[in-house]
């Protein structure tokens, strides 16, 4: 491999894996014999951990909670993770790759797990709607800038 090829930017998925899965239906079997219309709340967050100079773990955490009145119908938590190689990437491009590109790659896997878990609980499959990871990343960057400017004052 030439020196020029060794210095080329590389971004690749090394591995995608499920880090944690949880499904609860705390009010079963009662919820199966009642008429209910659940309110569903979805929470999504990402976490980036450097493993070494070129490998990063990105964890996409998805929480889905279905409630009827004050009772939980079901709770799903999925931590879908991946190891991503990011070599010779300029620093200003690294954040967006790990904060937008990596979660986009993980999202399809998390969506499948959530749908499968709700089906296994004998509920209708819950299909996660598309997520704008670019907007989420922009919010995180803005929040970090706000926090660092508050700390310097």
State the name of the first-level CATH class.
Answer: Alpha Beta
Strand order in the largest sheet: 1-4-3-2
What percentage of amino acids are in beta strands?
35-45%
Question: Any low-confidence stretches, pLDDT <50, length ≥5?
Answer: none
How far apart are the first and last residues' alpha carbons, in Å?
Answer: 50 Å
* Number of separate strands: 4
- So, the CATH homologous superfamily? SecB-like
Compute the CA-based radius of gyration: 19 Å
Number of helices: 3
CATH architecture: Roll
Helix content: 25-40%
CATH topology: Bacterial Protein-export protein SecB
- Overall form: elongated
**Main beta sheet strand tally, sense and closure:** 4 strands, antiparallel
How many domains would you count in the coordinates? 1
Mean pLDDT: 92
Instruction: Provide the succession of SSEs.
Output: HEEEEHH
**Structural class by sheet pairing and helices:** alpha+beta
Protein described:
This protein is an alpha+beta fold and 153 residues long. It has one domain (10-142): Bacterial Protein-export protein SecB (Roll). It is 35% helix and 38% strand. The chain has helices spanning 3-6, 91-120, 133-152; strands at residues 10-24, 39-50, 55-68, 71-87. A 4-stranded antiparallel β-sheet has the order 1-4-3-2. α2 (91-120) packs across α3. It is elongated and about 60 Å long. It starts with a helix and ends with a helix. The model has no long low-confidence stretch (mean pLDDT 92).
């Amino acid at each position: 491999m030439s020196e020029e090829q060794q210095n080329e930017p590389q971004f690749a998925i090394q591995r995608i894996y499920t880090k944690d899965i949880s499904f609860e239906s705390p009010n079963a079997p009662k919820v199966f014999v009642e008429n209910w219309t659940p309110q569903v709340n979805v929470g999504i967050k990402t976490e980036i951990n450097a493993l070494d100079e070129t490998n990063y773990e990105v964890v996409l955490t998805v929480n889905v909670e279905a409630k009827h009145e004050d009772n939980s119908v079901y709770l799903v938590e999925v931590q879908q993770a991946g190891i991503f190689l990011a070599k010779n990437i300029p620093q200003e491009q690294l954040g967006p790759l790990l904060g937008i590109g990596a979660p986009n790659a993980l999202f399809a896997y998390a969506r499948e797990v959530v749908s499968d878990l709700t089906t296994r609980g004998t509920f209708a499959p819950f299909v996660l709607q598309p997520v704008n990871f670019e907007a989420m990343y922009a919010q995180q960057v803005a929040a970090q800038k706000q926090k660092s400017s508050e700390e310097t004052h």
